[in-house]
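Regression test attached.
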Amino acid sequence: MRSIIHYTPRSSSLLPSFGFAVRSPWAGLESEIDRWFESTLSDVVTPAIDQRFPVDLYEDKEHTYVRAELPGVNREEINVEMINGYLTINATRKAKGPEGEESFALRRSIAIPEDVHADKVGATYENGVLTVTLPKKEEVKPRKITVEVK
Amino acid sequence: MSRIQNLIPSFTRKSAERDNSEPTLRPWYEVKETPEAWGLTVYLPGVSKEGLELAAEEGAVTIRGRRGWKFPAGWTALYRESVDAPYELVLSHDNSIDVEKIHAELKDGLLRVSLPKADAVKPRKIAVN
């Protein structure tokens, strides 16, 4: 199978366009040039091994949440690890390429702001979005120490 | 340049007819070709079958996807890279697709559409006397 068009949204195109106020005056020209490059280079450039995927970080009182957009990945091949305050997400995406199965490795490490109960971390994968729930550790409450001054 | 565009049936996008009512995102997509059909792969994370609309009409294939997930009330966003806008992808084809036989499958946010070529466009061997 020959790949005709391979489109990867660049970060600038992820911004929804609200009209002229936000769009740069070059945006029209840029997208035309993009299109031209896509049509000429698509045979030459192999599909990019997109290692990056968008993640969102949220929190509420009890938990920190990480949502990662990983469409088309097998559940069994998602690996989530928590090491030293960093959450690492590893995933493999398999695609049927012209030579057979091609496999892309996706990997991202995110710093988690609060201390976490590492053994109570849970994750769900639905519709291509991985949601990791990290319960926060309660802060060690400062103890009041009274010092007697002699 | 334009000769090459004409030989390969162009999956071009409609430019400038912007529907300004709601900002939409163009998803990551890929088009591959076999002698029988075109295969379209679109990444739509967060979209389930209920939120997906796939239509083929007037020489264009339109895919719209809405994410099912809503921001839970108690959550504060610390850092966001994804955007909440719905996905929209419009690919125009010059009637080289047999719309009756389009087959689509959505799994885990990955949409695969198989667009069989209309008979007129399939490569045919021509016998020479």
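Expected vs. actual: identical. The domain at 23-68+79-116 of chain B is CATH 2.60.40.790 (Immunoglobulin-like).
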